[in-house]
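User: Second chain of the day. Same drill as before.
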Amino acid sequence: MPIHDFSYRHWEGERSERPPALVLGSAQIRVALQRRAVKLLLLVSGLFVIAYLGILYVETMPRDGLLGFLRNIPLVKLDGRTLQIFLDRQRLLHYLICLAAGAEVIALDRRFRTLQIYLARPLRVPDYLVGKALPLLLLLSLCTWVPALLLLVLKSATTASFEWLRQEPHLPFAIVAYSTLLILCLTSITLAVSSLTSSPRLASGQLVAVLLFPSAAGDILAALTHDDAWQLLSLNANLDQVCSWFFRRELPYELSPWATLAMLLALTAAGIAILLRRVRAVDVVGGS
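Assistant: Same format as last time:
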């Protein structure tokens, strides 16, 4: 009878050299995509894209066709104006995605004290933060610059010409610049709010307050004082102003677009500063 040696055998496979942030981020993305709320929000965003594909179809169909009369309607034309509306009208959807997929990601780690486990491994604080931010970066991208650029490319393909884009050559830059600013600002604010508490419900409530209350206060104070400077308090107003500026449309408020841009960058920087203060390697020793 042969004798089998059951002693320890070293693993002889190959280790994956994937960055730790990517490993954590991919796991967080799978968790986010399993939530019904996130799936529903992505479905609603997909309906926006389908609606604008319908606009593109009507615009490129013959004038004597069944729906040719719709081409005379100003909004039934895919240009800078409609692309700006496409991004603006999904603002509430963007907020809800942050609430559904990002409000509790760090709060849960603080509640179950898993920060000690994460930061005890070869995972640095920047890797942890990037991994936690990847789901929001992906989901918000799927609702902003990805479909907008897809619509732009599809119109160029269906018309077999870039002549229409020569009239508004700034559109690709406007789409990418506005989307990047929105994604970075919302992601940093969401994760910062999530890091302030160990209660997922409280984190969700705080995020709603941060996104809505300053905007409401800015609208009320601007209406009472007849001074649009108060709109700098409103995240929504700042995003509207910057979006109109990037798309070279009439500005909705009597504010310097540079001031609104500076406010959005300041909010992003403040969120990052809060994250670096709240998520530290010292949590491995003492917890929180």
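Residues 194 and 245 are 31 Å apart (CA to CA).

User: Great, on to the next one.
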